[in-house]
Amino acid sequence: MLSALIVIPLLGAIIIASLPGKQDRGFYRSLALIFTSILLGLTLLIGFQFDLNNPNIQFNEFIPWITGIGLNYHLGVDGLSFPLVFLNSLLTLIAIYSSDKNIERSRFYYALILVLNSGVSGAFLAQDVLLFFLFYELEIIPLYFLIAIWGGGKRGYAAMKFLLYTAVSGILVLASFLGLVWLSGASTFDYEPLRSHNLPLSTQLLLLAPLLIGLAIKIPIFPFHTWLPDAHVEASTPVSVLLAGVLLKLGTYGLLRFGVGLFLDAWVYLAPWLATLAAISALYGASCAIVQKDMKKVVAYSSIAHMAYILLAAAATTRLSITAATFQMVSHGLISAMLFLLVGVVYKKTGSRDVDFLRGLLNPQRGLPITGSLIILGVMASAGIPGMVGFIAEFLVFRGSFPIFPIQTLLCLVGSGLTAVYFLLMVNKVFFGRLTEELSQIPKVLWSERFPAFVLALLIVILGIQPSWMVQWSEPQAGLLLTGQSQMEATVNFNKGVS
Questions:
Q1: What is the pLDDT of residue 488?
Q2: 342-384 pLDDT per residue, tens
Q3: How far apart are CA 246 and CA 226, in angstroms?
Q4: 447-465 and 82-98 are packed helices; what angle lies between their axes, rounded to 10 degrees?
Q5: Phi and psi of 63, rounded to 5°?
Q6: 247 pLDDT band (50/70/90 cuts)?
C-alpha cells in the first residue's frame, strides 16, 4: 500500500508527459488533480488503518534490491512520518489546484510536481538510509526545473544556488550514512539494525557532524540559509507552497529520524551547541524579516526563524520536545503554505509585493478584504495567538525545551515575540490606511482562488482547538525514538552543569 504513494504520482507524471501536446492546458491540470486526489484519498485510508497505540513501524514493505551493496527497498510508516506524508499529499493537491490554468509547458510542469511528490513521500517512508538518500536527492531535480523555468526574473540564479546548496547537503548526508555502515560493520543500510550499533562517542561525533551540516542546509539553519530567500522570491506561488510546506521538513525529519535515532549519545553531547544555534537562527531570521520590503521575503525569513524552533526541540531530546518538534513541522507547513498562497493572490491582483507601495487593501469595496482577513488570520497563527495551531506548537516546543535549555528557550521566545513585530509591520502597511489611486482598479478575487487558503485556515483552527488529534500520532513514537533514555538524561544533566 505504501508503494502506491510513490508509484501513483510517478505513473501520473509519465502519463501526463506522454500525452499529445495538442490537448487544452486545463486538461493536464485536471488530470494532475485526479491523480493527487487519489493520492490524498489513499493517504487518508492508510491513516484510518493506522494503529495509534503501536509506536513501531507499520505497513512494512521489504524487497531485497541490490544485495551486493546492502540496499533494500524497505518502506514503513509511523507516527513521526505519517503526518508529513499527509501534509505532502495535501499541499501537492493544493499546489496543483492553485496553479495557473494557462501555464506554459503545462505537461512538463505538472509532471515535475508529481515527481516531486513521489520523491518526498519516498524519503518520509524509507526505512533504509541509502534508500532515504536516493529519494532525498530525487526531489532536487524537479524543484530545480520548477524554479528555473517558471520562476521570476532571477530564476536562473536562484535555481542554480538551490542546486549547489542541496547537492552539498546530499553529499554530506551520504558520507555520514556510508561511514556509519562501514564503521559499524553492518551488512545492510537498513535503519533498525543500524540503531543497535555500539560505536564510541568520538566516532559518533565524526559521523554526526556531516549529517548535521547537510540537514542544516536543507532546513535551513543559519548560516546555511542564504539559498532559501532567493528560491522563494523567484519561485512561483505553488512551488513556494511546496518548498516551505513540505520540502524543508526533509531536513527536520532527518534530524529526528537519523540524528537522534542513530547517534543519540553524540546528539546529546552536542545538544547545548545545537540549542544555541537554534536560538541564533531564530533571532537572525526574525531580525531579517523586520527589514524586508517584499512580502514574500518576510514570509521566507519567518520560515528560517520558525524552523529553528524544531532544532531547539530536537536538541532538548525529551519525549515532550520530540512530540513538539513533529507538531511544529505540521504547524509551520500549514501556516507558511497559507501565507505564500495569499501573498501570491495579492501579487496576482496588484502586480506588486512591495510593502511600501501597497496600501489599504482591506478596503471592503475596492480592495481585497477577504484575502486580507485570511492573511491576518495566518499572521496571528504564526505569531502564536491562542486558539490556533501555531500557539500549541510553540507552547509545546518551549515547554519541552525550557527545563533542559532555559537560556536558549528564552532567546527563542524573544524570536517568537518578534514574529508579531514584523508581521504587524507588514499588515499595517499593506492592508490598512487609504487605498491609493494606483490600486483603485484591483480585479476581484474569485472564490476558487481563495478556496485552498480556506481549507488551510480551517485546519489551522481545528488543530489549534483540538491539538490532541495531532499529538496522538507522534507521542508514542517519541518515546521509542529516545531508546536509552536513562543514559541520555544523565548526559543531559552533565551538559547542563557544564554549560
A1: 37
A2: 999 999 888 888 888 888 888 877 778 898 899 999 999 998 8
A3: 18
A4: 160
A5: -135, 120
A6: very high
Instruction: State whether residue 231 is helix, strand or coil.
Output: helix
Region of 379 (left: φ > 0; alpha: ψ -120 to 50; beta: rest) is: alpha
**Phi and psi torsions of 76, nearest 5°:** -170, 165
Name the burial class of residue 160, with classes exposed (0-12), middle (13-18) and buried (19+) by CB atoms within 10 angstroms of its CB.
middle
Per DSSP, the three-state class of 386 is coil
Specify the pLDDT at position 433: 79
Output helix, strand, coil percentages for the chain, rounded to the nearest 5.
Answer: 75, 5, 20
Residue 25 has pLDDT above 80, yes or no: no
Angle (nearest 5°) at CA 158 between 300 and 133: 85
Q: What's the CA gap between 401 and 492, in Å, rounded?
A: 12
Pairwise CA distance, residues 262 & 284, whole Å: 30
Cα distances (Å, whole numbers) of residue 272 to 267, 275, 469: 9, 5, 31
Could you tell me where the DSSP H helices lie in 50-154?
Answer: 82-98, 106-125, 129-138, 140-150
| Alpha carbon distance 125, 481 (integer Å) | 16
Q: How many CB atoms lie within 10 A of CB 98?
A: 22
pLDDT of residue 195: 86
Query: Alpha helix locations (H) across 151-294?
Result: 155-184, 191-195, 201-218, 227-234, 237-242, 249-254, 261-262, 264-290
Grid cell in block for residue 493: 544533566
- 144-200 pLDDT per residue, tens: 999 999 988 888 999 999 999 999 999 999 999 999 999 988 888 999 888 888 889
Q: Could you write out the DSSP letters of every residue in 46-70? A: HHHH--TT--S-EEEEEEEEETTTT
Axis-axis angle for helices 106-125, 82-98 (nearest 10): 170
78 has pLDDT over 60: yes
Q: How far apart are the first and last CA of the chain?
A: 48
Buried b (16+ CB within 10 A) or exposed e, 418-455: bbbebbebbbebbbeeebeeebeebeebeeebbebbeb
